[in-house]
Amino acid sequence: MKLNIIGFTALSAVAVASPVEKRQGGGGDGPYKPGTYKTDSSLQQHTIYLPTNPPADLKLPVLVWGNGGCGADGTSTAQFLQQVASYGYIAIASGGPGQQGSTTSAMMKQSIDWVTQNAGKGAYANVDATKIMASGFSCGGVEAMDQIWDPRVKTIGVVSSGLLTNQTAAKSFKKPIVYIMGGSGDIAYANGERDYNALPAGTPAWKGNINVGHGGTLFDQNGGRFGKAGLNWLQWVFRGDEKAKAYFTSGYSADGWQVQSKSLDNLKAPL
C-alpha cells in the first residue's frame, strides 16, 4: 500500500521556514556534540547528519526525515536533526542543504536503501541499518508514514501531520508510532487525531499535543519540546533507555503535553 500525498497543499502551504543563520547554528547538547551535517556523492539530494567523534564501538541508529511542505531544503530543521546526531544517531533529510524544490516519499526510500547498502562500510562502519525510524514534519510526516510497510523501518514519527487522501490507511498501522502535534491551532490537528483514533488494537502509540500550532517548537534550539519528545522516542525505542521511556509514561507532564497513549506495554525496546 502506498499513501497518495497529492493534495497536501493545505498543510504544506503553512510550513514554517527559519532563518538561515538559525538553521545552521546550534549543534545539539548530546555527548557527541556538535551534531554536524554533510553531503555524500553516493546519496545526492540528501543531507546527512552525524555525531562528532563517537566511540568506534557505538552503533548509530538511523532517522530518515521528511521536511515541512515536502520542501527540498535538507537543513530546514537542522536544529532538531543536529540535536539527534549529537546523541549518537545518523539522520538523513531528503533534499540537500539549501536546496530548492520538492521531495517525494521515494526520496525517503532512497535514504533507507542507501543506509542498507552502506552501513558497516568505510565512513559508515558504525551505522546500524537494523534500527531505522522514518519521521517528518507536515507533508514530510506523510512521506514518513508511506514507509510504514517497509520491513526495514521499525517505527514512525508524525510531527504536525496526518493523512489526507488515503484517510483509512492508519487502520492498518501496526508498528510503534509517535504523534507530536501542535494542539487545536495546528492545521494538521484534526487529521492527526483521526489517524491516532483509527490505529488498530495493539499498536503501540503515543500522541502529545502542546498548544503551539503547526510545527510548534521544532525550529527552536535543539527542536524545543517537540525535539525533546522525538529524541526521547528514539532513545527508548532503539536503546531501551529507561529515563526516555519514563518520559512517555509520566515525565511529559513537566513539559505541558496533553497526552493519549495506546498499548505502550507492547513496545519491547530496544527494537
Automatic annotation (TrEMBL):
Keywords: Hydrolase, Signal
Top-level taxon in the UniProt lineage: Eukaryota
TM helices/strands, residue ranges: none
Gene3D superfamilies per record: alpha/beta hydrolase
Cited InterPro entries: AB_hydrolase_fold (IPR029058)
Signal peptide positions (record): 1-17
PANTHER family hit by this protein: CARBOXYLESTERASE TYPE B DOMAIN-CONTAINING PROTEIN, CHLOROPHYLLASE-2, CHLOROPLASTIC
Identification of the protein by name: Alpha/beta-hydrolase
